[in-house]
Amino acid sequence: MNGRMSQVLVVAALSAGAILAQDISATWQGKVQSGRGERRVVCKITRSSDGRPGAIFYSIDEGGYPIGASSVAVQGGTVKISVPSVGAEYEGKLSADGSTLTGSFTSRGNVSPLTLKRATAESSWLIPAMSEKLKPMLKSASPGFEVATIKPSDPTKPGSGFKMDGRRVFADRESLRAMIMFAYGVHPRQIVDAPAWADSEYFDVNGQPDQPGVPNLDQMRSMYRKLLSERFQLSCHRDKKEMAVYVLTTGKNGPKLTPSERGANAVPDQTMHRPGFLTERNATMGEFAAMLQGSILDRPVVDQTKLDGRFDFMLRWRPDQFQFSGRVQPGGEADAYPDLFTAMQEQLGLKLEAAKAPADVLIVDKVAKPSEN
After folding, report:
1. Domain with CATH 2.40.128.120 in the chain
2. More confident residue, 343 or 274
């Protein structure tokens, strides 16, 4: 081997060693293209007391909420960061001087180039802090709507759901039964003696809470309970009834869930992108069970996981004719996934089983169509 070749190999070996020895614990930032244009991304990589790296992403042009990664792997100068809660992964090659990660960000099958630069105290972008107005509402607060408008929905208007944007709390194209389900956390079968129009007439609701701060999910439910009482004259009482339910428990090998970084008082983001494609962010197991029974399954879901805390996760499955009120046609992208019960065990480490058990029912004593705005 000639001297020139030996020198090249020595330099290459030294460079590889430098990359492998490089500590990537730092704040990294870069810009990525999305369907809504260019957005700034910050990734904070840290190292735990046992030496394992961890990471948190922030999309600072979309509110700056923290999104925790489940794993960070460094091998041969390649850094891989997995964020299963939003179906995303970043892979980048570390430069020899350790200042740049050149790679791509993959989210739900879409690949976008993303170069991350190691930030200094002077160059780092400011992660938005919540204003006083947008800070979480006090946990002890029991808000109602300050002023709420209720209008019949446009029958041609697509979409529906209970939503929040800042302090604005609103619902698009929702029935009385759906409002009762949301307000009291029950399945349609748990609502007894509702009038026929509870399923046939749809409403849009729009307003803000009558107390400062951003409400959490329980406080949003409180707002709708007060709205139903004041504007729909709803009067009801609870009882127990033996009925067919699904019981949610942990699997024999334990759960596969990522703890959320958003905070206990933040509102959960429960998004059904399309049938069989569910993303849960900052959700408790009780809120997950409520989503399953409220939007997907044909019977109530009883949470017996005994898991505390809030989690980020995704669930992908092939719906059957008993889910989504039978509105889902077979075929399509979801056919590549297992059925819901198998997907629950494989992807989340949870178990869903049919059973008969006592369940709460909500008996409607009195209700009327909403008063004028």
Report:
1. 3-118
2. 343
